Amino acid sequence: MRVVEVRDLDGPNLFLLAPAIKLELADDPGDDHPAEFAASVIEACRALHRAAGHEPPQVVWRELESPGHRALAFGWSRRRFALRVADLVGRIATGGPFDLAAAGLELTAILAEAPDRDDAPQLVRDAERSVPIVGVTGTNGKTTTTRLIAHVLRQSGQKVGWSSSSGVYIEGEEVLRGDYTGPGGARRVLEEPGIDVAVLETARGGILLRGIAYESNDVGVMINISEDHLGLHGINTVAGLLATKATVVKVTRSTGTVVLNADDALVASLVDQVAAPVLFVSRRDDNPVVLTHTSGGGRALVVRDGIALEHHRGTERPLVDLADVPITHGGKAPHMVENALCAAGACLGLGLSVADVAEGLRTFRNSPDQNFGRLNVYDVGGRTVIVDYAHNEAGLENLLALAGALRGDGGRLISIIGTAGDRRDEALRELGRIAAATSDEVVIKETTKYLRGRTAEEMNRLLGEGATAGGKTPRRYEPGEIEAMAGVLNETTAGDVVAMMCIEDLEDVRRLLLERGTLTS
Question: Distance from CA of residue 164 to its chain's centroid?
Fold first, then answer.
């Protein structure tokens, strides 16, 4: 048995809906622990707290997804004390020398020290905030949904701060650039004076590494769940990913609203794990989950004949015609319908009127100024070019679904693919296969900024293997996104559709396309 890590989580997390210390242990070859081992480690943690005159906290034991790994997690309020407890529990668990009386004296002395600010969990307590929080999570569509919620709220007259994968924004002004889907971005928004609502995109990395930045939210949104970043931080399955991201909706206060996508069975299954009333969304009005929910008086948003409808307290009323919601491309982009419904559900959960929500949906577009890098569509000499921040299999499928719907008679569909290197080999091959199965031609572009431990040659090989397996030998490999787009534009004609996974050089690609064409959405 060995200690893998001791991690202090400042907010709700995979293990506890409160600050927790995680002690991860792993078996060495030949280890064989008795059934009572977990109970003995838990009792050791409690005994150390008692020895220091401290009330034992909540303690949980969890088998992790990495074979032979498990974690002890316990609540904490004093960082130095709790980290030292974890060190001592690790010593006990691994069979090291240990003296409980001496440990008790050491821990008592730590508690006697005057604490500083860093000694307490760095999360925003409910008593410390005065504005509602909307937490947004899922695999795909988080940034679009966050931006759309913020837009609807601002259109209704509210002052909004939001954090996302592109930065932190206060009333539309960028105050921090970069990926701020972790607790740092959330705290920056919540520290801003004068805002009325905080909308916080929340990704799995921040939850696993630091915990959520706040004690509870007023609206929690779970859009969807699919394979993404598996194999990182001990999460190897979609079930593990769901459990991690579910933290966002589990901390929604009981007086709030949880928005769940009923078309995603895994997401819908969270209905019994949350404290707040659930508002289901679905692209179908005959979804059985929704029908059961609404028959009991539950709230839902569904689509019937292109019209988004709200079911609430046994009544039905129209919300908006999807033909008037630009981001959905008249319903041709199903995942954008999903995002629009989730955003509408969140705003209704905050108490906005149907009229205000509908107006917000009608005035938000997939344009660089409102939804940069998400299904931005250009016309370049009769070619349709779609640029999207698709970075995983589901994202690419969504991108190519719209591309296929926009292709005219006789036009070709050319996909430009590539993503970050922190994906499993199978995921990279699958991207190639998906592109080949749907496109007439596949171009692979290298990702130089986000190799994350891989080489460009390795990425090209895996993506190329997938494309070949899908029936299309890649047309060529390009050293970057600009080179790939410029090359494809030179070799395509009016009527063709170009769909690009663009994660590195969005600004430069946008400039190139505007030099040669016009934005259409």
Answer: 10
Q: What is the pTM of this model?
A: 0.92
Residue 112 burial class via C-beta count within 10 angstroms: exposed 0-12, middle 13-18, buried 19 and up: exposed
Which class for 331: exposed (0-12), middle (13-18), buried (19 or more C-beta within 10 A)?
middle
CATH of domain 373-519: 3.90.190.20
**pLDDT tens, position by position, 442-501:** 999 988 888 888 999 999 999 999 999 999 988 889 899 999 999 999 999 999 999 999
Q: How far apart, in whole angstroms, are the C-alpha atoms of residue 285 and residue 308? A: 9
Locate tokens 């609404």: which residue? 294
Just give the CATH number of 126-364.
3.40.1190.10
Sequence ranges of the domains in the chain: 2-119, 126-364, 373-519
Give the Cα separation of 472 and 429 in Å (integer): 13
pLDDT computed for residue 452 by the predictor: 86
Residues with Cβ within 8 Å of 479's Cβ and at least 6 positions away in sequence, in order, are: 445, 446, 448, 456
pLDDT band of residue 408 (cuts 50, 70, 90) is: confident
CB atoms within 10 A of CB 189: 26
CA neighbor of 211 nearest in space, from 322, 75, 110, 406: 75
